[in-house]
Amino acid sequence: MSNPDPSADSSNFALVRLRALLDDSSFEGEQRLPAERVLAAQIGIGRRALRRALEVLEAEGRIWRHQGKGTFAGPRPAHTPANLEELSKRTHPLEVMDVRLEIEPALARLAAMRATNGDIERLLRLAEKTASSSDADGRELWDSALHRTIAEAAGNSLLLAIFDMVDRIRQDTAWRLLRERARSGERQQAYVEQHRRVIAAIAQREAHAAEHAMREHLDHVREGLLKVMTSPLPARMDGQIPEKPVTADTKKEIRHGT
Amino acid sequence: MSNPDPSADSSNFALVRLRALLDDSSFEGEQRLPAERVLAAQIGIGRRALRRALEVLEAEGRIWRHQGKGTFAGPRPAHTPANLEELSKRTHPLEVMDVRLEIEPALARLAAMRATNGDIERLLRLAEKTASSSDADGRELWDSALHRTIAEAAGNSLLLAIFDMVDRIRQDTAWRLLRERARSGERQQAYVEQHRRVIAAIAQREAHAAEHAMREHLDHVREGLLKVMTSPLPARMDGQIPEKPVTADTKKEIRHGT
DNA sequence: TCCCGAACCAATTTGCAAGTGGTTCGATGA
DNA sequence: TCATCGAACCACTTGCAAATTGGTTCGGGA
Question: Which 200-229 positions of B have CB less than 7 A from strand C?
Fold first, then answer.
């Protein structure tokens, strides 16, 4: 009987050689392997056959590769994003919402305890602006400024940096549409009232009340988000249907690497 | 009577010209101004006089400058660090501890709800290792791995990224010494017991208990940190005195930029 | 005493070259 | 007919040197 996959012959040879190389003590740590072109010449096979073997080893987790860097022995180092784009790809709106629900109530509580009178003045002015803003973009901006001012008033630079990180992800790309749909008219009204309550609690230095009010507000926001995501086609005035079901696509694409 | 500050003559001239330039619509946004050398030649004064004028404008907040970048119209953009070194410079151990107190109890709660059985197995193994580890470095590593595994088990990639960020700051530079001193023998014993409690709660899926146990644990850690920082020279078995009062120096160096 | 020009320092940006894995293509040979 | 190879190209990363910028110092000159 003939070989069912003759194409793998020289690749198999390469696999044997590569496994021997990896088992060798010289590649113990996270050592870098020679470049593909060099390695192929060393073993005496073509680059294509070598790459097939490397794919197997990578799938096994014995090596990892990165374009422009090289091929390395050992498991792929834990990928901690640290830059926004990567992080933004790997998360999704519900995760972000969960994080906000953990962080921002704490920020509100701390703000109630540590805000300066100047902070509180700024908050009150912002609340007015948010309420009186008419267009969606304007609301968006004032709302963002309001939440950030609370984060500043909390007086913890590290927490502020974390808030900024989350906020930048939130403002990224495709989510704007989602958020816009999540704030219908009456919901927007409720948001304004909830903001007022949070700010009032902070202004009166009621830490617990501030935390509670903020959590309640974000619960409402989360609920709005869920509603939009689970019923993607509510009656729309303009009758337009989004070309792509944003939520589903986004989630699938994001989920691929935990 | 003579001019009390004749040195400001050409600088004043430059100020007038510059204000006119800034009021001009062409520099509305965060536009970049010409280089100092060019600008000085344009206005027809020396660079030194120009720089005096620019200092005034910068103090007024109408422009901002940065070495190697240039001079820009408008207020200085909000500085959101985003990279570890900057962040690490701008925070201090107590801030980090406060953040951990906000984040990690939430992580423990989520882990209790969402951990896989595999996660729980890993946690139990790690707890053993941590308890049996003898040297300080070993404890440090196992402890870190334990907390991170809980963060992983919480199943929120964004929260995990935040945890990693905080953890990297925590492990940075000078704080290692501080932490080492904060874990005396009996405190270490208590930590092991607290870890056991957190893990047990997670394993039994008791979300609230897990959150509570983790908060209690971190409260103890915080207390240990405070004790070390407020009484920098406890009685030491070996009689050695650290060459430098680490806490004070570190705090001062870190504090310089809020 | 003040101003100017020059020079130097330090931080940043920019462009380029080299090297890497990822991919496509046509020629070759079993 | 098919797998293979070599070549070429693309996309990404790294490293380095040049250029540019603000920050600073110094000496000449009015």
Answer: none
